[in-house]
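Dear support,

I submitted the protein below through the web form. The confirmation email said the job was done, but the results page showed an empty box. After a refresh the structure appeared. I'm attaching both so you can tell me whether what I see now is the final result or a partial one.
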Amino acid sequence: MTAVLITRQGEPVAVTDRPSALSALMKEGPAVGLLPKAAGEEGVPYPGGVRLLELTEEEKTALFSREVWQELPAFLDEEWLSRTADRWHGRPVRIAETPRLILRELVPDDAPALMALYDDPVTRHYVEPLPETEEEVRGQIAAYIRFMYDFYGYGIWGIEEKASGRLIGRAGIEPAEEPGFVSLGYLLAADARGKGYAREAAREVLRVAEEELDIPREKIRCEVAADHEKSLAVAESLGIAVIRLTPEA
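What the results page shows now:
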């Protein structure tokens, strides 16, 4: 079987059909990070058609052997494999945690909780609404995983309250309209406000951006509605540029 090796950006970077530990993993089907290449096809975009397998320790050893490593891009490490498998199987990827909160990627099963989160007058006033049905929201989350988390390596993550295990909000970064910059955003459920959670989550997002994603603080900004006083107070306490958005006439 000829296989296409794919990157997190979704573009094929290498093709191999010579015997190796990699091909040995494909006896039962494509291995992690691999998908079959149809005759005459230049490449198959991720994740369409990808089949991810849970690797045994023996298979991991084979995959990371020196012989195979020469064929793989540097980012294809244990963390990449783990996150890719988690996303494929619908498990939330944990990004970071604070004393009270867990930042993690959203998964399609979060649709009901996310819809409840957005079913709030304050949230509806400042944030674009979600689709009307759970099926549509699940599809939106799946698309966000593919085109934001997997493509950029970051996005707006879910905020999980440790004490309850409940999804109580969202916080993270997305590419800004101005090239080279990212925008920080956050929102909380009505019953989670007034506890310092927004500031706690936002500060951890900034730490992850700077220390793990190598995004300089001067490239991070926060756009906030000019009349949203509580959100402005949080943004202005973070030490980043704050852009006040005024309602369109």
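Response: this is the final, complete result; the empty box was a page-load delay. Residues 158 and 170 are 4 Å apart (CA to CA).
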